[in-house]
UniProtKB/TrEMBL annotation, chains A, B, C:
The lineage of its organism: Eukaryota, Metazoa, Chordata, Craniata, Vertebrata. Functions as an ammonia transporter. May play a role in the elimination of ammonia in the gill. Belongs to the ammonium transporter (TC 2.A.49) family. Rh subfamily. This is Ammonium transporter AmtB-like domain-containing protein. It comes from Astatotilapia calliptera (Eastern happy). GO terms for cellular component: plasma membrane. It is a multi-pass membrane protein. The chain crosses the membrane at residues 12-31, 67-85, 92-111, 152-173, 185-203, 215-234, 254-273, 310-327, 398-419. It is found in: Cell membrane. Gene3D superfamilies: Ammonium transporter AmtB like domains (1.10.3430.10). Homotrimer. GO terms for biological process: ammonium homeostasis. Residues 57-437 form the Ammonium transporter AmtB-like domain.
Length: 465, 465, 465
């Protein structure tokens, strides 16, 4: 029986959660001093600022918009590659990101910027970027689940995903005092393992009943390429969006840009080697070429050097493409882990790798290279962290990566079991990867392109003669 | 008879109008002091500016580019959803926007920045943004007419649309001294009613002869989703592009971002409730989720508060989706108003709503919230408007909305009658929504995808055996 | 025999070149003083800079991202118009741009910013923009070769293309001291003639064996329109990305914007006149409307005046569309020059034109218009060029255009002969324009959309009854 009837559950979830957002925003969220009309005039006066261009808005808005494009067009269109699940790929991505970013502003606000006196959270452009980042964790998880879950389940994945994200981020960034501006650990490692763990719990032994739809067609691959390219092009903005003003943002862009470029070449190389006639596989090009951006998330703001960045990219292209060729099939057969988009190879492993690369680069940092004030600024070694040595910092960075993995795995397993309750409207095994389940598709004959009617007409004519 | 022969009329209009642009630009348009080589050096000296970063260019260029993307890719691709009118959707949008922005620079210049001494209009980055905005009014109108008019008619719609826009904008912004940075009134309300009025005059009783083409196919809906997402993502830039430097732009972005996010959830909810199995409709997702951006056009720069923004978005998603479900069919049946893209629900009503929300928020503004100088700056209450009270300002804002509606309706009816002259090459009723009319389509069998030939071949082979 | 087996050659080239990059970057490339952590702190101190916003990053990063989008999505998707070569169009564009930008950083670094003391090249955001520009030359050349060469050949085209580019750029910009911020000469003229010369050497007399695939389908034309629009919208950023801070960037944007708008109208006009029923051709709209951006590459930063820009755009639309209608077919028949994308009309001729327009505008520059310091800044007339008169500058600009043509033609012929060695895996004449050669295509029946199977099923059912 087709149990994908969501006429009650989806609107209920959307309304309840959106009304909750209205109330919670009313209680908690206010403009910060750089976006508040009165506050900004006072801020300028008290900080002796003469020009509006010093508003943080002008440092971060171009990067914010790039990140925004990555979240909605990048992730959204990357997931349109399935021949008959493109609406779900881009549409549900839209839904859960729009919900997630609101919930993220609250969760991150409570943990990071709740004013103890007023009890309010103040938000500005950096909060919006962080909210987008926070959604990314859940969108990554969606990649593993693509085509096998209902939008209601995705809302739950996002609710818990954002919550877990805020907690692990608090532990990693505040308690362990790690640096992770581009989120190798907090976004990609967490999101990757979170999605894999959920998918493992939701294993469907008879998924091959939908096998005919678990693949691309020519034009769906081109739509996915739009998403892939916007992710690839704007990853320098992703990693640099919240790094330090000045040389910090500047260097992060250079490092990410170089690493991504190198990754493309090794991705093409391994993809070609993996097929007996040397033919390239669009899945690799769309995904593995992005792995360098993931892996540079932590270390791009450090002085990793241009060639260091290229080496990271070089390795990521190889590892990620190998993952698509051999590890994903292995996981599915042996570990009963169905990972539709291969987030294991694009997020989980490169993210983990990026966490450890960051640890090494942090441990190797010296005052000679960074300068005294540069070292303090880059690693935030002031206040109670003033005396932390760089090798200690490196160890904490490595520990942060492990925390991200643990949160992803444990959280994912728990959420997976919640999703197994039979009330969320997920599709039957032979109805996966099919937009028919949740979308009114164009044409009466919904799974058939318009040419068919005409063909039938031709067939009839042909046979009459 | 097929009367879509535009080999004479289209080139004639293009050449005449473009030559007029050359002459009028030669007579009137000059660089402003921030883009003129000599002028900028003098400006820096006279204003004691030490850094080039103070040039308005750096405050506005990132937003300008986002607006530019919305005009050409956003509006253009949103109109590719029809199965066989995608070329016309994106192509004619391109044509009329490229013409409209030139004419807008002149019209807006004459009304807003004509130097009485030199008789020249000076332009800078803000003029380009305003020119793009001005085009938007006509592009919105195109949404109602999509598939039913010729490119020559569209050029006329744009010529008059831009002209009317500049006049109503002058009345609303200068005479009534309303604030409307994101154009809820001047752009969306005007553009929406302008298009609806034209479409009403051009009513085609036999349009169902083209019914087979008045719908989408799977991939055309994905192309439209590209347009929808770029509009959705960049709407914060649209609303903030010409607001005040500093906290003004910063706050406008936050408000628009939040409102749009909330709107997505209620759009999904109502869309699902509107179908008996709870299936979602791509038309709603592509359009209604944008209504919040429209409705925040006036008030986003005010201190509407974050939760106020979310409430506006919440309501807009509901109203707009209801509009698509029930109002558009009603308008077509009862009022003889054929609105191809449903601009009534995306622009006219949310725009009007936004105008009134702006009036309320303006009337509620206090010195306590904005600060003394903030209030003056935000509402421009200097010079002869120095003593205007906030409730008066609110009343003027409401009046401005009515002016926009009136200009749209009256102007649209007049232009509609001009378009009924039988010389503009519009398609017959059974030839609407068909690119065949104005485009050389690929393949000999133009309305049939390439697969057919192969199929016929297979059919023959099959029958031979 | 099908000789497109690239399982050895492509990975070999990718690995060898990428490893070379690692080594060369390790030896030569370092952060510049605005991206180096320590360097920036010292730079601020020594230059008395108080705000991080003065970092060049904030002047150029938004433009850089636009240029990046043009290179990867703009060029990439513009080349997806062929019905069965879209993977190759966007995919190989991705590969060669990712390689080219690394090699460009080295080549341009050696010629322009090698520190004679340390022997190092320092890079910052401007270097990244220049690297993207440098790739553009080779991507333009790819346009002429599209569908007829292997990815290995493209890597060679790029290796030599970038090398030649750096040399001619050094001659034109440094030795002749021309101004060419948007690259009419160094990018478009060079890239155009380079590609044409290669294509001429690689002439295939029997290319009509692949004729069935040398054309578009409905949706491939829409994908190409995405590329075209992103190029069109972001061309103001392309031309202004490395012009002078302040009024320089500001004015360049205005000029390019106006010129492109005018170009659209004349393109539509001529396209309609060129067909007997006045129907428009997507090839013209996608390509000729961009010619104005190419032609403004040199002069957009000068005081060409707004109406001057419009006149250039006006002419370019006409010339370029005529080129597509008459010159490309002529070149193919008479000169045995097969130019898949028509780069002759979009890059070679408008680029050359732009070079000469730039020469004229430079020669006409006066202190009255630019101001004394403006003239020096705009044309860089300091140091040993202090006493160069404007007419001399104009003559050098014209000479620079000739240098670009010469480099393109001679370099292209040489590279063409290298590509004729029979070891690069290029496709046979009947296998051109076919992704089948280098890509694993979706579905077993690779050239047939999924609908066929279903159709056959229907046919069988039909015939059984």
């Amino acid at each position: 029986a087709n149990n994908t009837y969501i006429r009650v559950s989806l609107p209920a979830v959307c309304f309840v959660w959106q009304i909750a957002m209205v109330i919670l925003f009313g209680v908690f969220i206010r403009y910060d001093e750089e976006s508040d009309e009165k506050g900004w005039h006072e801020f300028k006066r008290s900080h002796n600022i003469t020009s509006n261009i010093e508003n943080d808005f002008y440092f971060r808005y171009p990067s914010f918009q790039d990140v925004h494009v990555m979240i909605f067009v990048g992730f959204g269109f990357l997931m349109t590659f399935l021949k008959r699940y493109s609406f779900g790929g881009v549409g549900f991505n839209f839904l859960i990101a729009a919900f997630g970013l609101q919930w993220a502003l609250l969760m991150q606000g409570w943990f990071h910027s709740l004013d103890p006196v007023t009890g309010k959270i103040t938000i500005g452009i950096e909060s919006l970027i962080n909210a987008d980042f926070c959604c990314a964790g859940s969108l990554i998880a969606y990649g593993a689940l693509l085509g096998k879950v209902s939008p209601v389940q995705l809302m739950i994945v996002t609710l818990f995903g954002v919550t877990l994200f805020a907690v692990e981020e608090y532990i990693i960034l505040d308690l362990l005092h790690c640096r992770d501006a581009g989120g190798s650990m907090v976004i990609h490692t967490f999101g990757g393992y979170y999605g894999l763990a959920i998918s493992w719990v939701l294993y469907r032994p008879n998924l091959n009943l939908s096998k005919r739809l678990n693949g691309s067609v020519y034009h769906s691959d081109l739509f996915a390429m739009i998403g892939a390219l916007f992710l690839w092009m704007f990853w320098p903005s992703f990693n640099s969006a919240i790094t330090n003003h000045g040389a910090g943002q500047h260097r992060t862009v250079i490092n990410t840009y170089l690493s991504l470029a190198a990754c493309v070449l090794t991705t093409f190389a391994i993809s070609s080697m993996g097929q007996k006639k040397g033919k390239l596989d669009m899945v690799h090009i769309q995904n593995a070429s992005l792995a360098a951006g993931v892996a540079m998330g932590t270390s791009a703001e450090f002085m990793i050097t241009p060639y260091g960045s290229i080496i990271v990219g070089f390795c990521c292209g190889i590892i990620s493409t190998f993952g698509y060729l051999y590890v994903t099939p292995f996981l599915e057969k042996r570990l009963k882990l169905q990972d539709t988009c291969g987030i294991h190879n694009l997020h989980a492993v490169p993210g983990m790798l990026g966490g450890f690369v960051g640890a090494i680069v942090a441990a190797a940092a010296t005052e000679e290279v960074y300068g005294k004030e540069g070292l303090v600024e880059t690693f935030g070694l002031s206040g109670k962290f003033e005396n932390r040595s760089m090798s200690t910092q490196g160890a904490y960075q490595a520990a942060g990566t492990c925390v991200a993995i643990a949160f992803g795995l444990v959280g994912g397993v728990c959420v997976g079991f919640i999703l197994r309750f039979p009330l969320w409207g997920d599709p039957a095994d032979d109805f996966c990867f099919d937009d028919e389940a949740y979308w009114e598709l164009p044409e009466d004959e919904e799974t058939i392109p318009p040419v068919l009617e005409y063909n039938n007409h031709m067939i009839n004519k042909h046979q009459d003669t």
